[in-house]
Write a structure and sequence with these properties.
Elements lengths: L1 E5 L2 H13 L4 E4 L10 E5 L7 H17 L4 E5 L8 H11 L4 E5 L7 E4 L2 E4 L2 E2 L18 H5 L6 E2 L6 H9 L5 E5 L1 H11 L17 E5 L2 H13 L4 E2 L5 H11 L1 E5 L11 H18 L4 E5 L1 H11 L3 E4 L8 E5 L6 E5 L9 H6 L3
Parallel strand pairs: 1-3, 1-4, 2-3, 4-10, 5-9, 5-10, 11-13, 11-14, 12-13, 14-17
Antiparallel strand pairs: 2-15, 6-7, 7-8, 15-16, 16-17
Length: 358
Amino acid sequence: MIVVLADDLSGAAELAGIAVRHGLSAELQTDFFPDTGADVICVAADTRSLPAEHAAQTVAAITKEIVAAKPTWIFKKCDSVLRGPVLAETRTMVQAAGKTRSIILSANPSRGRIVRNGNYSINGQPLHETVFANDPEHPRTTSRVADLLGADLAGIETPDVETSADMLHLAASVEVDTLPVGAADFFEALLQLRISPRDLFLQPASVSIGTTLLVCGSAAAWAQRRTEALAAGFPVFALPHDVAAAVQALNQFDRVLIGIGDDSAAQGHASAILVRQLAVTVAEILRRTPVSRLLLEGGATAAAVVQELGWTRLRACNVFVPGVGVMQPVNSPGPQLFIKPGSYPWPPEIWPCVDAGR
């Protein structure tokens, strides 16, 4: 059993999807439950927005449970641009897991996110000059990895990573005393090195088609998402939500985009309150009408919706959509969930799949 401890739900879903593509069974959990038979368990701790001390306490408690289950190895999933209390969580997990060192590789070369000379860039642009500079919760005002982590890095390595070959080389250096911490590319490199080649890359199943509810809790992504959705024939609903109208639109068009939006109703409120309102609306829609596909973007949005619906375990499905975890509730009727990190766009594959449902 391999256990991933992620700081948000979308990251946990992403790595569960990677595990399935490598021929492993995987489950996403909001509370650690080891007796599942899954090869990989991805635990979503939902700590990214917590104060460092609170996040560390949460990670310590979960890590002790994980260690007691005696996994083959452990991976700490962090945000690819190091948002949240990454260093506090890493140090706590190193101690709780009985490790002596850690290596943090948050770069994703496969998506143009690299570290060169200690500086993080995305497609050649310094991190602090990208949209992440204006992140409402964790603005990236520097590109220096050491400064992003923000404290003494004794016992923690943060090497440069510019290519997938670099990532594989560094993954090969991870020994039993080392806690690997990072994003999707680092986890995938470890799987490539540690899983027998005959088990790799099962033929993925086809994407399901049916009634689709697309949920966007990001103010930054709303304008783009609305444009894409309208082009694909989605009726669009923002705060204040008219649930009855959204249900009617789903029944008529088999597709709806619902989000917080950028109108006056979304102004002057804490993001957590707005996301909670969105989750309540999504749950009410699902109570009123069946949905085949639930598309969730962003860890906070996905976590709020999953919590509102009372799901604590999600099984990763063998469906390949790049950068997206495809999940199904365990022991509970529910739609197929497509979950992706908020910092990436929906891949182009998702729109033709939705369009095919007409």
